[in-house]
Amino acid sequence: MLGKLIKWEFRANAGLFFGMYFFALICAALSNIAGAIREKTGNGTISIFFSSTCMIMTLLAIVAMFAVIVIVSVTRYYDNLVKDQGYLMHTIPVKPWQLHITKLIVPMVWLAGAVLVALLSVTAATRTMFSFSEIFDTIFRSEDSSKIIGLIGYMIVAVISGFSIFYVCINLGSLSATSKGLMGFVSYIVIYFINQALNLVAMVVAMLIVFSGEADVWAVLNSDVPPNGFIEATFVAAGIVSVICIVVYNLISMYILKNKVNLE
Amino acid sequence: MSMLIGVKGLHKKYGKKPVLKGLNLELKSGRIIGLLGPNGSGKSTFIKCLAGVLTPNEGEITIAGKKVGIETKEIVSYLPERTYFSPNMKVKETIEFFKDFYKDFREERAMDLLSKLDISLDSKIKHLSKGTREKVQLVLVMSREAKLYLLDEPIGGVDPAARDYILKTILTNYSEEASVIISTHLISDVENVLDDVIFIQNGEIALSSSVDDIREKNGKSVDALFREVFAC
Lengths: 264, 232
Prior knowledge:
The complex is a heterodimer of chains A (about 260) and B (about 230). Chain A has about 260 residues and is mainly alpha-helical.
């Protein structure tokens, strides 16, 4: 049943998201053509205007692509599980955790596609012909590969965390008898501050661990250069906090969907 | 006839307002049951609890011996008051959706009913009138070979001709061993098709009886008794 849910989740927004991908690629192709024309004709006012417009459109299309995927996915969760469509989704014979997890997996796949499209678009628009094997080598075979992989991992965790926070707030809001939207909004503010506080604590702990090896902490604090491993430790600490929060938020969402469904 | 639904001490509150106040009920299979009561009496809330879209505060519900959950959803076909399909879905996609998730869905039956209604399979839900959307949902719900059909106000917002069509669709499509619960306040329209009635008043069961018993003991129609019980 999970496979079927995922299939329907993809189908729901495939037209819109593929359209966004296509639009970004078209803008990038136009930028590429505009760049080629500018190279041939020189820096005339019209060619500068045309190439600049195309480049701005490409960047806007890329930003819009990511924004639309996030907004539409979160809205769909609300419409699909809390509003009228919930009368269908909560009466199909599937486990509540499957309903929830589908809505985490599918947007992540659409966002991964958007990253790929963004890379292709930037490559095409800027006329810099770097290959995917170059990107692969930079990530996995360079001196800094562990840092780059860590950063990518952190970004993925941050995106999952973002969706998990939105979803748990929607579910907490659904418990309200009268003001689901308001309750969801208040939940978001509370959870946002809890998240910030936990991240701060984690960073302080990371700092203490890193500084524990320093003989003169005062000198390190007054130095312009952060001590070795400080940035990495901060990212790791924030990552661990985010992963714990992701688990907690999703468990709360699944608990509410299983035991507190409230389509009044 | 075996026991299909068991309800014990069912309580539901919206905020602080009690809507269901300790319902106790046992319903057998193979019956058409009218869940009757004025607006706000708790009919829809009770049906939602049976369908699993609303969690009771207290009490227990069993359907075919199982607590409300994934196993009961396999055998319960629920028609809510609202349109529950995404507006962008096409009619043929709604059929595909039901086929994917309900093992007991009979596609041929749905196709046949839709073709009789002259509804195009390529129409998008958002382009259909409210009445047609309701008919599409009814067709899909009645195209399942479920053990229990929960129909929440199926004739509520439609014209008399459509009411006849809806009742005919229900009567000609449910399987004999299944039970049908129809919630409504339009008693005279459904009275002739009912085997049993349950009167709900202020979240409590005011009466649970067979239609024949009501006619024999009270010498009245269900409609007349309803007007007497719920007189303002």
